[in-house]
Structure formats: structure tokens, C-alpha cells
Design a protein that fits this description.
The protein is α/β, with parallel strands linked by helices. 29% of the residues lie in helices and 23% in strands. The strands form five sheets. An eight-stranded parallel beta sheet has the order 4-7-8-9-10-11-12-13.
């Protein structure tokens, strides 16, 4: 049996009467989602969004076990990015629970590939070269920018990545048509993450060499993976997890505002009409192309347990310890059950079903 004493800030004591690994239900640190665009009708990037939008996403994510999350701002004009950053920071200042839940912000673009395929659904009109000066302007408004995703395909990419790193930014490689040589050069310059590896790339690539092999092989890169069952087939997910080992991969939901919605046809601001089917696949009507993710991180955890050889201890590391290690601004002890760690934890079945959630010391489980 495992007994935890805690307050609204941290774990005060842990007492074990036997091995907690044998306990069912299982107690785990709260889940950590390092890439969230929206959830249950609320959109981080909505032009009409408010700080209340960020508070609502925080509350809704907590109900499914995600007690820490990283808002992801996608490719947009500089003014739109600044407005989104302002809303997030306003929400953090207004609510200590939100402040604890959001360690920093991920900006995915606008410095990505302009080619169809690698670009994904990002607005082609707003894609631009990597610009460390623009990023410094983002920082000047007091925003907690943690990660910026870039495509290192341009001639000045190495220099710009080095400058981003000097600003305290964690650089991720994603939505790219860069060559393996350009990717290696980006890592040499300081890039340390891969954004949703296996997605945000051409549909058809050379068998070898190619950018996926390069990122899998480089132990300096820690890779985010969308494990919703649609973005990566089970065998692909299995191989990627084996290649990166126990510490160099983490799961993300990449959830959009349609995550948590019932199946049906929906009109979106980007891409028009999309179809959310009963299996949770979100695609453009009449095509096989994905239109984003509609599953939660907890869904991804359960899928990993179902389609890979990872057991629950390894799978939990992908949504707790590992993302905590790479997220800038993460609180000390985040992602682990130990004295002094944040008082965020979940009660799970051995199949990964979330039974109870505590965030900042308060029960936030859905009734």
C-alpha cells in the first residue's frame, strides 16, 4: 500500500507498506502533455480566444489525467503569436493552478517547411525563415517561451539555431524537408528535440537515408511521438520506442479543439470540413489525410500498452518522467512520485484507464 501526504504545492511524505508496483489501482505522477493545440472545444490559437480559454483547457485536461501541459501556438503572423502568448501569460497570472500546470509555451512554426506535405495544415502564407530577432521580440513581452520548432533546411539555419539557443530557447526539428546532413548540422548547433517524429514530413521518402532514420539514430535528440493510433502505426511506434530507448522518447497528444468531441462532421478555421470518426481519427472529408489529433494523452498511453511491447512502467515514463525532463520551466520533481515533487498524481488501472486525478492537491476527477 502507498500513502501520500500532500498539500496544494507538493508531496510532503510517502509511506509504503509493500511494493507499490504490485498495487492495483496504480498511483502515478500526473500525466504531462508537451504539445496541446486545444481540447474539448477550446483552441489555444483561436483569434477570439481569451485567458479564460487557457483556464478551460487546463481544467478539461485535468479531468482526463493531464495535470501539466504545454500550449502550442502554430504558424501565424507575429501579432497573432504575440496575442496568443499574452493570453497564456494572463491566464497563468490569474490562477495559481494554471501557472503550475503550464511551465512554458511551445511555438510550432512559423519557421518550418513551406512545401506541401511537411508543412501539414500550417498557413503557407505565414511561413517564414528562422528569425532569432523575431523570437527575441516574442520574449520581450514576458512570455515563457520554452520550445520553438523549426525546419533546418535553409542555408542560415545553423547560425539561426545557435542564436535561438543563446536566447535560452529549446530548439526542436519538425515539419521539415531538410536533408539528413542538414539535420545533423542542426543538432550540432544545439537542437535537442524532434517534434512528433514520423509526422510533418513528406508522405513518400527514400528508404535510406532519410530524415526519420537520422533523428532516430542521434542520441542527442529526444523525440515526441503521437500515439493516438492514427498518426503512427503500431509497428512504427514499436520500432521508434526501441530505437530511442527508455529515456529519449515521450508521448504527445497534439490535440486540437475537436479532441473530446463526439464523432461527426465539423467545420474548422483551418482546412474546412473535417470528419471525426468513431475510432477518433480526424481527417479531411473525402480523403485519407489527417486533420490533426482528436485523442487525449491518456488515450495515447492506453494505445501504447495495447499495440507495443512496452509495459506500464515504461509507458508511464513516456508521459511523466521523460517529458518533465525536456520541458523548459518544469517544476523540480515534476513527473515523479517523491517527497518535494508537485502534488499532481493520478490513479490508474493496469490498462491505463484513469480513475482519479489530483492536481495541485485537489481532486479534479470527472464525476
Amino acid at each position: 500500500m502507498l500513502t501520500i501526504t500532500y498539500d496544494t504545492e507538493r508531496i510532503l511524505a510517502i509511506n509504503r507498506s509493500r511494493d507499490p508496483a504490485n498495487d492495483v489501482p496504480i498511483l502515478s505522477a500526473g500525466l504531462i502533455d508537451a504539445q496541446v493545440n486545444g481540447f474539448r472545444g477550446h483552441d489555444v490559437n483561436a483569434a477570439d480566444g481569451t485567458s479564460g480559454t487557457i483556464q478551460e483547457i487546463t481544467a478539461e485536461l485535468a479531468k482526463v489525467g493531464v495535470t501539466t501541459w504545454v500550449p502550442t501556438i502554430i504558424t501565424a503572423s507575429e501579432n497573432s503569436i504575440l496575442a496568443a502568448l499574452g493570453r497564456i501569460e494572463q491566464a497563468r497570472k490569474a490562477d495559481v493552478v494554471v501557472a503550475n500546470a503550464i511551465p512554458s509555451v511551445h511555438i510550432e512554426g512559423p519557421f518550418i517547411s513551406d512545401q506541401d506535405g511537411p508543412r501539414g495544415v500550417h498557413d503557407a502564407d505565414q511561413i517564414r525563415p528562422i528569425d532569432s530577432v523575431e523570437v527575441s521580440r516574442w520574449q520581450s513581452v514576458g512570455a515563457r517561451i520554452g520550445v520553438v520548432t523549426v525546419s533546418p533546411h535553409a542555408a542560415d539555419a545553423v547560425d539561426q539555431i545557435a542564436k535561438l539557443c543563446s536566447l535560452g530557447i529549446t530548439v526542436a526539428i519538425g515539419h521539415t524537408h531538410a536533408t539528413p546532413e542538414q539535420i545533423i548540422a542542426a543538432v550540432d548547433a544545439g537542437a535537442t528535440l524532434s517534434t512528433h517524429l514520423g509526422n510533418g514530413i513528406e508522405s513518400y521518402i527514400r528508404r535510406h537515408p532519410n530524415p526519420i532514420w537520422t533523428q532516430l539514430a542521434d542520441d542527442r535528440l529526444t523525440c515526441g511521438l503521437i500515439a493516438d493510433g492514427h498518426h503512427l502505426p503500431g509497428d512504427t511506434l514499436e520500432v521508434m520506442l526501441r530505437a530511442k530507448g527508455p529515456d529519449k522518447a515521450f508521448l504527445v497528444s497534439d490535440a486540437t479543439a475537436l479532441a473530446g468531441h463526439p464523432p461527426g462532421l465539423y467545420e474548422t478555421a483551418v482546412g474546412g470540413v473535417v470528419d471525426l470518426n468513431a475510432e477518433g481519427r480526424l481527417s479531411y472529408v473525402g480523403t485519407d489525410f489527417l486533420a490533426g489529433a482528436a485523442a487525449s494523452l491518456a488515450d495515447g498511453l492506453r494505445n501504447v500498452l495495447q499495440v507495443t511491447t512496452a509495459g506500464l512502467p515504461q509507458a508511464l515514463r513516456l508521459v511523466t518522467e521523460n517529458p518533465a525532463r525536456i520541458i523548459p520551466g518544469a517544476r523540480p520533481g515534476l513527473g515523479r512520485l517523491r517527497v518535494g515533487a508537485p502534488s499532481d498524481f493520478v490513479l490508474l488501472t493496469e490498462n491505463g484507464e484513469v480513475l482519479k486525478v489530483v492536481q495541485s492537491g485537489k481532486n479534479v476527477s470527472r464525476a
